Amino acid sequence: MADRYYRVDYEDLSQQVYRMLKHMILVGELKIGEKLRQDELAERLGVSRTPLLSAFSKLEKEMLVETVPRRGAFVKRYEITELVDIYEIRVRLEPFGAAEAARNGSDGQIAELMQRCKEFGELAASEDPKIKELDYEFHMFIMEMSGNRLLYNIISSYSIIPIANFYGFFKAPTVSAEEHEELCRAIYNRNITAARRGMFQHVDNSLKHLKEYIAGRQESAPHQTG
Q1: Which burial class, exposed, middle or buried, applies to 18 when counting CB atoms under 10 A from its CB (0-12, 13-18, 19+)?
Q2: Tens of pLDDT along 141-195?
Q3: What are phi and psi of 34, to 5 degrees?
Q4: Residues near 69 by beta carbon (within 8 Å), at least 6 away in sequence
Q5: Rounded to the nearest 5 degrees, what angle is found at the Cα of 162, between the Cα atoms of 68 and 209?
Q6: DSSP 3-state assignment of 125?
Q7: Whole-prediction pTM value?
Q8: CA dihedral in degrees (190, 192, 194, 197; nearest 10)?
Q9: Domains, in order of start, for the chain
Q10: pLDDT, tens digit, for every residue of 38-76?
Q11: For residues 3 and 9, is the Cβ–Cβ distance under 8 A?
């Protein structure tokens, strides 16, 4: 993969650097367990260390980065069983966000959501790795439509962690596309109950597939004998 160089303006610099690093974690340019080398990142982003350290601090609070004493900052690595805990949280919070999106989303936002849903469906059949990024953006747009900024911030980190820590798909992208379509129809019709139910089923299905994956790994692991 060709290296990318991000350039940021100096207005609210630490926030822009934070967003850039967060995106680099999302798309895998910064991989789990990778050390965040200040000099290299400062040169790559065209900034000094000060906004970089501020961004590290924000990402640490969001559980995307961890600082190890005398070793530095790293992209935080999660055990796969910890991803279950994250999905347990998402399955409770995101349905609320979808319901509020159906209630509060503007007509313009709903039109954009339907377009995003169409684009996801078109890409799903190819299983292009970019589908993960589109899926993240789809979920975050619904949280934005909810009008609840705190919810948006919580789900933002909790959505990136599984993407960064799991390189396959929890379920077929085409299945996700079908679930997205059902959810979008509910929001389009401003059916609050159906939107809440659709999001619950969508996230819960991912959770079930994750649990099945973990169970399969445990069954295939060699048994220890005493």
Answers
A1: buried
A2: 999 999 999 999 999 999 999 988 876 567 888 999 999 999 999 999 999 999 9
A3: -75, 140
A4: none
A5: 140
A6: coil
A7: 0.85
A8: 140
A9: 13-75 (1.10.10.10), 80-220 (1.20.120.530)
A10: 999 999 999 998 999 999 999 999 999 999 999 999 999
A11: no
